[in-house]
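Dear colleagues,

For the upcoming journal club I promised to circulate an example of a predicted protein-ligand complex. I picked one with hypoxanthine because it came up in last month's discussion. The inputs are reproduced below in full, followed by the predicted structure.
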Amino acid sequence: MSFRTLPKVELHTHLEGCAPPEFIKGLAAEKKIDISKIFTADGGYAFRDFDHFLKVYEAACTTLQTPEDFRRLTLAVLEETAFHGVVYMETFVSPDFCGGGDLAAWKDYLAAMEDAAAEGQEKLGITLKGIVTGIRHFGPDACKPAARCAAETFGDFIVGYGMAGGEMVGRPGDYRYSFDMAREAGMPLTCHAGEWGGAAMVAETLRDLRVGRIGHGIGAITDPALIEEIAEKEIVLEVCPGSNVVLKAVKGWDNHPIAKLRDAGVKITVSTDDPPFFHTTMTDEYEMLHRTFGWDEDDFKALNKTAIAAAFCDDDTKTRIAKRLE
Ligand code: HPA
Ligand code: ZN
């Protein structure tokens, strides 16, 4: 059975991390940038572990230098994502990684993405929204301009502020300034936590950054009181099981805590994170959840309902998408 055509909602992707290797190689050739060492002999992205993954990711991003690169990337990503049944997608996008981090120019990049989103909506029937994202391992000060950019572009297309990157740099509270700035602009918030940092990182993120969604959050599994709190407060976890398996945040699919968290009453959603890096697609994620935990169409429909309810977009969009999930 394939779940490919089942309508899906995906809340946790990184735009740059969705770039197919062929796309990045094409840009590298155009701009005469030598990044051949980030690819394996058979053409995929080559990395050893999470820290190395972040370096390879950053190297790939050096090829994304103009708004037009972003427009083309966004369209390529939408085409691939729509093929896997995704009807609504949110994607993290980071001023620090691309276009040399020039914040004044960054609005042109986001406008190019928004143009591509409109084209994707019309041609592919997929809705895309962006989440401007600070990069944690660049430190608290580097996240402030990203938050300012998020607050200034908040609207129909940029719908939230988030933080990604290496989690083991400082504590969540060090990043309060950025999250406060975005919150004061009225933005919904999400933060990667508990991919590597364990239950304490998830608890501190909730306490100090007051986010409504957590990226990954799987580290919560060791703390029953925290699981109860997450369930009670209806915090939504953006779980990316295939990413966790490939990066070895968990020992394997059988050991992934997603089913236990769901069964404990936590609001769970499923996403791919960076599909070409982790050799996954939404179809593959559903297939593996089916094989590992016996989840079926009704389980997936429930996940997608949770996801659209937790989406950062406006209510009209939510209502329109929810109808497609019935
Ligand atoms: N974790 C943290 N930061 C990231 C990831 C991830 O899986 N992908 C891209 N940035
Ligand atoms: Zn992520």
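Two points we might discuss: The beta strands are 8-14, 86-93, 127-135, 158-164, 189-193, 213-216, 236-239, 267-270. The pocket of hypoxanthine (ligand 1) is lined by residues 14, 17, 57, 164-165, 192, 195, 243, 273-274 (CB under 6 Å).

See you all on Thursday,
B. R.
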